[in-house]
Amino acid sequence: IDINKDWKLVSLWIGTNDVGTLGYGDEPPISKETYKSEIEQGLKYLKENLPRTIVSIIGMFPAQLLQEASSILKTGKRMRDETNQKKLDSLSNDYRNASFEIQDEGNFNTKEFTVVVQPFATEYSSVYVDRIGNYNSSFYAVDLFHLSKLGHAILAKHYWQNLFEPVGKKTRKAELGDTTSLIYELDENNSFIKTVGNSKE
């Protein structure tokens, strides 16, 4: 790979542990402003040191898919009371919105560098359910928080599809439970990762 001439893809999925700490420990999770600022610091470093790069940010999932999966699978209910559920959902939304703000503000977009959000599961407001609608723990590792090989494979398939969908028309609620769907195929009319710049008609 020629670091200066070849295009590179950097995938960024960050913040799920911060959301999960809400209500635990002595310190609150970082604010939306801090979350956004720290990502921007990282992007600034990448832009200065990694030419010809697309940074792909995976949009924050709703808490039910990861942080509260264990409780929902075991009890059928979310683990926090209604007040803390609202705080958890609000924080997830804040982090998600921060990612979109970074993309839409365009401060990092040039001909040699760009940032784009992949929102394929940002509206999947449930623990993982299979094709027939049943809760299914096979998506998760034994701790029911991290992903199993199956979970990684499912998310990777939908992430791949999101990469090639235009900004503004990207899938936001992927059918994660449909494991029979085929991997998104590219053709001569659609073989480039979609960014803010090349999604304009």
TrEMBL record:
- Pfam families from the UniProt entry: Lipase_GDSL
- Gene3D superfamilies with a match to the protein in the record: SGNH hydrolase (3.40.50.1110)
InterPro entries linked to this entry: GDSL (IPR001087), PLB1 (IPR038885), SGNH_hydro_sf (IPR036514)
Q: Which GO terms describe its biological process?
A: phospholipid metabolic process
Any one Gene Ontology MF annotation carried by this entry is: phospholipase activity
Domain of life from the UniProt record: Eukaryota
Q: Which PANTHER family match?
A: LIPASE_GDSL DOMAIN-CONTAINING PROTEIN, PHOSPHOLIPASE B, PLB1
Protein name in the entry: Uncharacterized protein
Organism per entry: Caenorhabditis japonica
